[in-house]
C-alpha cells in the first residue's frame, strides 16, 4: 500500500507541475524556478516509491526464493540501468533470487537465475506470489547427459558442493546451475527430481552427469543420452 501511495504522489506532483507552468506567468514566478521546485518533489516521490518497496520486502529473506516479474523487465550484466540488457523477461516470469545489492541511489537489485541464465534485474519490478496465483508452468528443456559414479572410481568421492557421492543420493553434476538447485529430469516414461551437487561434465555438448541413484530412477543410463529437464521452483 505504501508503494501505491508513493506512486499516487508522483502522479499528483506531475499534475501540479503542469498547473504551475500555466499559472506562473500570471503570478510573476519564473517558470524555471517552479519547474525545478516541483521537479525536486517528483524526484523525492520516486525515491519514496523505491524506499516503500525496500521497506515492504526483507531482501535478506528473499535470497534463495522465487519471485515474479510485475512487467516486462530487462535483465542486465551489472546492477545498473546504464548496462546493456542481456535478455528480457515477460510479465509474471518466475525468477530465483541468488543475491541482492543496494546501489548508491538506494535502489535494490536482485541477481536472478532463470533456467541456467544469470543476470541482474530491478527488485522493485518483482513481487511475491499473490494469494490464489498459480505459477506458470516451467518449460522443459532438452539436454545431453552422461553418468558418473558408475565404474569410474568416483563412487564414495567428495563432490564439488560438499556431499559425498553414494549409490543412494540423488545427485547430478552441472557447470552453471548453483549448488543445491533442484532439477526435474525425464527420460522416456521415467522422471526423477535430483539436486546439483557436483560440477561437470567437462565435455562439450553435455549438460549433466547423472549419479547412480538418478540413473536407476530413470531406468538406467546407457552412454550419452538425451533427456528433458527443468528447474524445480
Summarize the helices and strands and which ones pair or pack.
Layout: H1 2-27, H2 31-56, H3 59-62, E1 66-69, E2 73-76, E3 85-89, E4 94-102, E5 108-114, E6 117-122, E7 126-127, E8 141-147, E9 171-173, E10 182-187, E11 190-198, E12 208-210, H4 212-217, E13 225-231
Parallel strand pairs: 8-12, 9-11
Antiparallel strand pairs: 1-4, 1-7, 2-3, 4-5, 5-6, 8-13, 9-12, 10-11, 10-13
Helix pairs in contact: 1-2
Instruction: Just give the CATH class of the largest domain.
Output: Mainly Beta
Most strands sheet: 6 strands, mixed, barrel
Order of helices and strands: HHHEEEEEEEEEEEEHE
What's the number of domains?
Answer: 3
Summed up, the helix count is 4
Q: What is the mean pLDDT? A: 78
Structural classification: alpha+beta
Distance between the termini: 27 Å
Percentage of residues in DSSP E strands: 25-35%
Q: Can you identify the CATH superfamily of the largest domain?
A: RlpA-like domain
Please give the number of β-strands: 13
Amino acid at each position: 500500500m505504501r508503494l501505491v501511495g508513493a506512486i499516487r504522489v508522483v502522479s499528483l506532483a506531475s499534475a501540479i507541475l503542469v498547473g504551475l507552468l500555466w499559472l506562473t506567468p500570471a503570478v510573476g514566478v519564473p517558470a524555471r524556478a517552479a519547474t525545478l521546485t516541483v521537479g525536486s518533489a517528483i524526484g523525492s516521490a520516486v525515491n519514496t516509491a523505491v524506499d516503500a518497496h525496500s521497506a515492504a520486502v526483507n531482501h535478506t529473506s528473499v535470497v534463495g526464493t522465487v519471485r515474479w516479474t510485475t512487467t516486462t523487465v530487462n535483465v542486465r550484466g551489472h546492477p545498473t540501468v546504464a548496462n546493456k540488457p542481456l535478455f528480457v523477461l515477460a510479465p509474471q516470469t518466475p525468477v530465483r533470487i541468488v543475491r541482492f545489492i543496494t546501489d548508491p541511489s538506494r535502489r535494490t537489485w536482485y541477481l536472478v537465475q532463470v533456467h541456467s541464465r544469470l543476470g541482474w534485474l530491478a527488485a522493485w519490478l518483482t513481487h511475491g506470489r499473490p494469494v490464489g496465483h498459480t505459477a506458470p508452468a516451467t518449460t522443459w528443456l532438452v539436454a545431453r547427459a552422461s553418468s558418473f559414479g558408475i565404474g569410474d572410481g568416483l563412487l564414495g568421492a567428495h563432490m564439488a558442493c560438499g556431499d559425498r557421492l553414494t549409490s543412494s543420493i540423488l545427485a547430478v553434476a552441472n557447470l552453471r546451475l548453483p549448488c543445491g538447485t533442484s532439477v526435474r529430469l525425464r527420460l522416456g516414461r521415467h522422471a526423477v527430481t535430483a539436486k546439483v551437487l557436483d560440477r561437470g561434465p567437462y565435455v562439450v555438448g553435455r549438460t549433466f552427469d547423472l549419479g547412480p541413484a538418478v540413473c536407476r530412477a530413470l531406468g538406467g543410463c546407457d552412454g550419452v543420452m538425451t533427456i528433458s529437464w527443468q528447474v524445480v521452483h
